[in-house]
């Protein structure tokens, strides 16, 4: 969020890190994203990785990736993820993420498997989540 607090994170690969290290790294990344102006590029280097981020209202969505990934496809993944969250939550906000973290995880898992993009079609991604909703009624 705009205060630099991480509300949701998911790691697929990389060096194993202790929880404290992750918290410090995420805080550092948040500070760097918050400092960037609207006219600066949404992709920048962070250590051995690249970061792509987008800001939507008060939320920041950040994805770390290596040089092998297509930079523009990562930005498109962020866009698709936010659009799907907006569809599911009817204009996603920070509280939706905080109080529905399991749904946020399921939606991401439908889109990304083992760190690879597998699905971006809104209907295909939301189908399992909507089925879960029906089953829980």
From TrEMBL:
Name the UniProt record assigns to this protein: 12992_t:CDS:1
- Which species expresses this protein natively? Dentiscutata heterogama
